[in-house]
């Protein structure tokens, strides 16, 4: 693997991890919330001329959990795992994003998408944790040579 090329590609992405809680006095659909959140992120990335490398959302409720993922700004998100959970009054979520934009801009996109999707459904929200950053270049410990049958490695430390 050419780590210089890998590092350059990784450095071009803003990375973001966030934990969010949603509550409402009325029942809401976690599925509608997740779909709206992904849609808002996609729309905001298009407006910012940013490409989504991946965007994942896990939503957990007392009834179970499900997750959505997209790898571009245009595809329709679909639920996997338990997916269609019942309507609830509270839910929590984890957002994981890799987007071709500066980390601070990615943070703005995600915060705005959380706000828009939550308000759209009349849900209160609180961001528990949010980290937006650009990764450091990889520092491999080993470098492998050869094929699977005929391989050797050298320690790079």
What can you tell me about this protein's structure?
- Helices cover 29% and strands 43% of the residues.
- With 157 residues, it is α+β, with helices and mostly antiparallel strands.
- The chain has a single domain (12-135), classed as Alpha-Beta Plaits, CATH 3.30.70.
- β2 (52-61) and β3 (64-70) form a beta hairpin.
- The longest helix is centred in the first third of the chain and has 18 residues, at 30-47.
For this entry, give a set of tags:
Alpha-Beta Plaits; alpha+beta; 29% helix; 157 residues
Query: How do the strands line up in the largest sheet?
Result: 4-3-2-5-1-6
Terminal Cα span: 17 Å
* CATH architecture heading: 2-Layer Sandwich
SSE order: HEHEEEEHEEE
> What is the helical fraction, as a range of percent?
25-40%
Q: Strand-residue fraction?
A: 35-45%
Domains, number? 1
The rounded Rg comes to 19 Å
Q: What is the name of the CATH class?
A: Alpha Beta
The class by helix and strand makeup works out as: alpha+beta
Quaternary: single chain
Give the overall shape, derived from the CA principal axes: elongated
Mean pLDDT metric:
89
Largest sheet: 6 strands, antiparallel
Low-confidence stretches: none
Q: How many H/I helical runs?
A: 3
Count the E strands.
Answer: 8
Fill in the CATH topology: Alpha-Beta Plaits
Task: Annotate the secondary structure layout.
Layout: H1 3-11, E1 14-28, H2 30-47, E2 52-61, E3 64-70, E4 78-81, E5 88-99, H3 103-120, E6 124-133, E7 142-146, E8 151-155
Antiparallel strand pairs: 1-5, 1-6, 2-3, 2-5, 3-4, 7-8
Helix pairs in contact: 2-3
